[in-house]
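FAQ: What does the model actually see?

It sees only this:
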Amino acid sequence: MRIIDRLAQYLAYKKVTAYAFERTCQVANGYLKKQLKGKGSIGSDILLRIFHNYLDLDFVWLLTGNGEMLRQYDENGNLLGDQRPHYSKDEMIQLMNTRIMLLETALADKEKIIVMLEDRLPKL
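And it is asked to produce this:
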């Protein structure tokens, strides 16, 4: 299951519409549908927006599918128990590789933007 599939599972569970998600995370209309069709990948900037807006969504579960979908909080907003999962060496490597992939994607996107802006400079 892909990250976007797990995100869709979470949104369905929480009864959050695609429109509400897109507005909350400040992404373009149709973003979620496009991602679900497999026509792109979720960038690190969007992942950060998701985690800032959906605090009960477990980061590790979204990225890897390991653990529980929801983080549990008490009435004071404190994380209940030690919910930090314990990972094997292979699981840690997988997590790190996922993180590296996301960072490389974000870097490539930023490099493309820089090139586009540099191309526009002489025209100004």
